[in-house]
Amino acid sequence: MHPYTLAHRSLRAVLALSLSGGMAAALSPGLARAQAYPQRAVTLVTPLATGSASDLALRIVAERLATPLGQSIVVENQTGASGAIGAEKVARAAPDGYTLCGCNNAILSVLPHVRKVSYDPATQFRPVGMVAVLPTVLVVNPALPVKTVRELTDYVKANPGKVSYATGGVGSPQHIAMAMFEAGSGIKMMHVPYKGASPAAVGVAGGEAQVMFNAIGTVLPLIKAGKLRPIAVAGAQRTAILPDLPTVAESGVPGYDYASWIGIVAPAATPDAVVERLSKELMQVLKAPATVAKLAENGIDPLVMTPQEMAKYMADDSRRMATVVKQAGMETE
């Protein structure tokens, strides 16, 4: 065979392979995107205050998630309007996987029932996966003469209008937890909303308010410093980081059970392949012993879910929170 003919056939074979690869990519754009994603840094917007347990959990996970993705993850705090500003930014972002939202249950399950917001969690976000459960604790300023839930409820009843509680804002996890507590214990305290969970904790430590529910990860340094006194755990089970602290339920408020959670969502039109890649790597990171240990040091428990499981969890929690908000009259605040 003539050398030119052989070379020509070889060239055609190479071109055919190249074209077939290109056609495969064209026929399966999701696969191509998954293989290419990410090609630059990913921004993880969190509408939560710096220093809060939610912020800490996201930063711990983001740092570890960057390695398998091969790109850095920039955590960007966008607070304001109880988290609505940051959530709206992500809802309107390009659905390419480069702008995600680290949102807690207040933003995804509570706030839309409290007031009108410019985003719809059910239609404008696509779940990527859960990150963590944030065990919550009931704390008081040490100057308040109470050391148990029963002593607190008795004191509030004996001093009507004189005890106030702090929260990170209307509809925040701290607000929801306290609304459930007031309903279950039959007491009423004055509400002092702050712009975030961390400022609220500092406010109670400084005596601006006397009581609050907050994530253990947020208030643990203040507890260790003696600036806050823990009196009960909000969840159904005691927590390993404060093993001697009873639950609210076993302290006289039967059935009480509350814990905040945080997860990652993407704009609704984000491609399947991108979400699947993120979800796969996120679940592996959350299962890693080093991640579990680091979260545990800060009183945070990892929560591993697929996007489908998270979607159901969000829907169920939203229905539950709608009832709590209505019963507490939060939508009028």
TrEMBL record:
Presence of the UniProt keyword Signal in the record: yes
Lineage, broadest ranks: Bacteria, Pseudomonadati, Pseudomonadota, Betaproteobacteria, Burkholderiales
Entry keywords, A to Z: Signal
Family annotation (Gene3D superfamilies): Bordetella uptake gene, domain 1, Periplasmic binding protein-like II
Family of the protein in this entry: Belongs to the UPF0065 (bug) family.
Keyword match Signal: yes
Name of the protein in question: LacI family transcriptional regulator
InterPro entries hit by this protein: BUG (IPR005064), Bug_dom1 (IPR042100)
Organism: Bordetella genomosp. 9
Signal peptide: 1-34
